[in-house]
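Hi there,

I know you've been waiting on this one. I reran it after we fixed the sequence typo, so this is the corrected version. Both the input and the resulting structure follow.
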Amino acid sequence: MNATLLFLLAYSAGLIALGLWIGRRVKETGSFFVAGRSLGPVLLFATVLAANIGAGSTVGAAGLGYRDGLAAWWWVGSAAIGTALLAFWIGPRIWRVAKQQDLYTVGDYLELRYGPSVRGIVAALLWLATLAILAGQLIAFAWILEVVAGIPKWAGCLIAGGVMTIYFTAGGLLTSAWVNLVQLVVLIIGFAIALPWALSAAGGWQAVVATAPARSDYFGFFSGGGSGIIYVALLVPAFIISPGLIQKVYGARDERTVRLGVGLSAAALLLFAAVPPVIGILAHAFAPELANQELALPTVLTLAVPPAVGAIGLAAVFSAEVSSADAILFMLSTSLSEDLYKRFVKPGATDRQVLGVARRAAVLGGAAAVALALGLPSVIGALSVFYTFLGVSLFVPVVVGLHSRRPGTPEALWAIGAGVLLVLAARLAGVSGLNSSLLTGYAILYSAVVFTLVFAVRGLRAKRE
């Protein structure tokens, strides 16, 4: 067992210990689900940013940079745009409703606005789709351990899954917020040291450019290979209405905290967006023929920097994967316990029973994600599935519901069904790559058109009656 692996295992043990220590304070669902609505700007900033910088934003985006060049900026850049819209548009509005109505989940909001049928359908859809993105986080960490220590994929998935499941199960959002703050500090330090060191080891930027693929679009900003501004259609809607992010917003102590904490995380994402593509481009100087593009980041941290710097950088990447994974686990556990169990299985459940189900759901979700990760081939492939279904099922009902009280259950159900069926049909037809990103935008537009048509038809019927 090498020193880097020992360092990562010790760091993992520290995160678990911190989570278990904070988790002792969590005795009821208010703390587990929304941290008692006590998060200030610093903790909200840390937990939102940590949730957004995960497998896709590090291992996945660096892999896209290795393959497609500078245009891979749009993978994280699109997330930043969506997060900014959450901060100043959707976030304050939905926080106000959640505070007034004592809402814990996005499902609570959907039932308040559209009824229990919409809540149940969305909860079931997201449970299935969310497992894909959680699996993506675990795959990313498995790639890291494969490069660092030669550990097989299944073992890496088990280690990452175990770490995030244990500390999240201990205390939910309250635990995650404090652990995410530590992870964010490690992430910033790790990348701040590793990136300039690796660039220097490669001989400077001009040397990196000389080793890059000789393609005319490789250093194009708006489009290159399979990456580019097209990611806006896939990612911006998902980051505006992500249940995991919205539930973190619920935990803010006031609207100002939402604007400040989430807004600052959007600004940080804009700055960070250039880091993974540059690392991916850098990887060509050290490994020009990688068989798996998603090994670009761990390859640079292993070959381009001294072992001590590489260990810090790998700890930073590990922080990114686990912090994002716990946000996904947050969606899974709260959705199953609050949106499905308490609402449909046992409406009279006590607070203690709901908390117990939430914790057991976190364990179940973590185990299921590990199993799925063993079968999925790539990080970006896993995340694309999630972002597509998230956008087409939630964007139209949530956004319209915050701006108008007139549409009801039929509009929401038809819009969700239309968008999801279009995506499923396209996936079965083999749509992928850039067309997959366009598909998300088209499906959301189609969902909005169906929503509007059903609303118009119902209005005409009401007038006739």
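Quick highlight: The domain at 3-378 is CATH 1.20.1730.10 (Sodium/glucose cotransporter).

Best,
R. S.
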